[in-house]
Design a protein that fits this description.
heterodimer; A: 265 residues; alpha/beta; Rossmann fold; 2 domains; four-stranded antiparallel β-sheet; 10 helices; 10 strands; 25% strand; B: 354 residues; mainly alpha; two-stranded antiparallel ribbon; 13 helices
Chain lengths: 265, 354
């Protein structure tokens, strides 16, 4: 289980981005972390994977523990070895390397040849598209294929916990569905998933539990089912607000000042 | 007239290069008929010089591959390694100490202690590379590349001063087992150091080529492309940097040792000018493509050929074009090459989806 407790992150010694954030990702579950731009979702991810350093950020308070072991003091490579891998926002595939080589970078921490081969076979089973084009340069793949490659690369490290940062970013609705199914498949194979998303509808449709983040704090959390039915979440994140007659409201009639968010949790 | 031939599809600049190459081939054929011995000797020297350039260029490429910066300190690293060998072999002790070089008493043919001393110099170079990387480069992980490049420039001056201190700015002879001897093919005299340089270049190239396909080599290329994403895969960027610097500094040492021998220098000695060998090899790197090992090999050979051929066959015009003209030939070749291929011959252009 991954546990973040009272996490406070500061960039450049002055910019307070996370203000006492607490999250739990239980084993073999999918947990969604939702929030608008600038809420601190990606910072949360960096705090987990140890990449704050590169961005001049630091954890000033709180801890990150994984299965009882503190990981916030470890190097990124050590964190990957404990079983946490991430798929970064914007895919970030190594465009100049071939697909095979990209996948091999994912298995860098794994020195055992046989288990690398197993992971490779599993990845190819998950993403048949990649198999056809394994010796192609990754930079020429389409956006959806690159996202699959990024997820496949992360799976090569045999993670117990996979963190996905905006996997649906910039993808067509059909591809978003495909990615969603892949996440469900990965989860079924026993990997817990922390899903960071702006696409709340997609995230809540597959997750077990959800957190909603605003200004570096969790403002609402609960079972995904409960969040889906929450009136505020529906209006502000799912865009499903209906008027009294039960019909979808026209944008012309939306009065933004009429209702304000009031998180009561 | 040319429009319908394959040549018609080329840009004027490429056409110019094709013309140059054709002129060179015709020139070589004419020389082969009129004075084959001179030609053979010139070709051998060109290969020798090209090989030395290639070795140094490979060091540049390795460090560039990992850190995306040109290591301007390559020349001083080369001299540091060569100096170490010079002290170990000629004076029989380790620099700054009175510890005698234990390898000299091994016995056997005289080249065995020398070869072992070369390995010791390479080991020293590896340590030096690792120290320099740890102190000056590692803190700059994730920082702007320009700053890193300027740091290497500073390192060049620091190391150069240390080198000059060590050698007391005197000529230091670097003994090699084959001396200044050579062998004859017909009337052409071919120096043994040409052969050794070529052999070392081939071995270095194969080693680098295999390394690129290994787990660590792929990691290095990943780091070069996107440091943060590489870190997210669990690749230890610091370790990759260290390995690149260790390997780069070892290649520099090999280049530095061969850079004191013909055809680079006739004296067989290390002097304050030896460090400039890296800047003479720089056009080879740029021409071949900064991130390509094959480019380093080919670029080194092209520049080597151009320099030696110009030195051999243009010498009667030296009063017009200036006595030191062979030294600027590499840069002229590089300029012409870059006009045709801005990324170098085998350099990777930025990958872009269309």
């Amino acid at each position: 289980m991954l546990e973040l407790s009272n996490l406070e992150v500061v960039y450049n010694d002055v910019i307070l981005v996370l203000r006492g954030l607490s999250i739990e990702v239980p084993d073999e579950k999918i947990v969604a972390l939702l929030g608008a731009n600038g809420a601190g979702k990606t910072t949360t991810l960096r705090a987990i994977s140890g990449l704050l350093d590169v961005h001049e950020g630091a954890i000033t308070k709180g801890t990150v523990t994984y299965n009882g072991e503190r990981v916030d003091t470890q190097k990124p490579s050590e964190i990957v070895q404990t079983g946490i891998t991430q798929v970064m926002e914007g895919r970030r595939v190594f465009a100049e390397l071939t697909i095979d080589e990209n996948l091999r970078t994912g298995a860098f921490t794994n020195k055992d040849k046989k288990s690398v081969q197993d992971a490779y076979d599993k990845t190819m089973e998950l993403f048949p598209v990649l198999k056809e084009r394994r010796s192609h340069t990754a930079g020429y793949l389409s956006g959806g294929e690159q996202q699959m490659l990024a997820i496949g690369r992360a799976m090569m490290a045999n993670p117990d916990l996979l963190i996905l940062d905006e996997p649906s970013l910039g993808l067509a609705p059909l591809l978003v569905e495909q990615i969603r199914d892949i996440i469900v498949d990965i989860n079924k194979s026993g990997v817990s998933v922390l899903l960071i998303e702006q696409n709340a509808a997609m995230a809540l449709s597959i997750s077990d539990y959800g957190y909603i983040m605003e200004n570096g704090k969790i403002v609402l959390d609960g079972e995904a089912e409960k969040l889906r039915n929450d009136e505020d979440v529906q209006e502000f994140y799912l865009g499903l607000h209906t008027d009294e007659s039960g019909e979808r409201k026209s944008f012309r009639d939306v009065k933004h000042y009429k209702r304000r968010k009031r998180w009561l949790s | 007239m040319l429009a319908n031939t394959p040549l018609g599809k080329l840009s004027p600049a490429s056409l110019f290069v094709v013309g140059l190459a054709a002129a060179f081939v015709i020139f070589v054929i004419v020389q082969a008929i009129t004075s084959p011995a001179t030609l053979l000797q010139t070709v051998a020297a060109s290969l020798g010089l090209g090989a030395v350039y290639s070795i140094i260029a490979l060091g540049f490429v390795l460090i560039f591959k990992a850190t995306q910066t040109i290591n301007f300190a390559q020349g001083s690293l080369a001299v540091a390694g060569a100096l170490f060998l010079s002290f170990a072999v000629s004076d029989g002790h380790i620099p700054f100490t009175t510890i005698a070089n234990p390898l000299l008493n091994i016995g056997g043919p005289s080249w065995i202690p020398w070869v072992l001393s070369v390995f010791m110099a390479l080991f020293f170079a590896a340590i030096l590379g690792a120290i320099v990387e740890r102190i000056a480069i590692r803190p700059m992980v994730g920082q702007p590349l320009f700053s890193v490049a300027v740091i290497t420039l500073g390192l060049e001056f620091i190391l150069r001063t240390l080198n000059n201190d060590t050698s007391e700015t005197e000529f230091r002879s670097l003994e090699v087992p084959w001396g200044s001897e050579g062998f004859k093919i017909g009337d052409a005299l071919i120096n043994w150091s040409f052969v050794v340089s070529i052999a070392l270049a081939i071995v270095s190239f194969i080693a680098v080529f295999l390394f690129y396909r290994s787990r660590l080599g792929i990691a290095m290329r990943a780091v070069a492309f996107d440091q943060e994403a590489a870190m997210a895969q669990g690749i230890d960027v610091g370790k990759v940097f260290a390995i690149a610097w260790i390997a780069g500094s070892m290649l520099a040492t090999l280049g530095g040792i061969m850079g004191t021998q013909p055809p680079v220098k006739q004296t067989g000695a290390i002097d304050p000018q030896t460090a400039t060998i890296a800047f003479r090899a720089l056009p080879a790197v740029v021409l071949g493509g900064l991130d390509s090992a094959s480019g380093a090999l080919l670029g080194g050979l092209i520049v080597g050929f151009a320099e030696i051929f110009a030195g051999q066959y243009l010498s009667s015009y030296a009063s017009t074009i200036g006595a030191g003209y062979p030294l600027i030939i590499p840069y002229v070749v590089m300029l012409i090459g870059l006009v045709v291929r801005p990324h170098g011959i085998f350099g990777t252009p930025e990958i872009r989806r269309v």
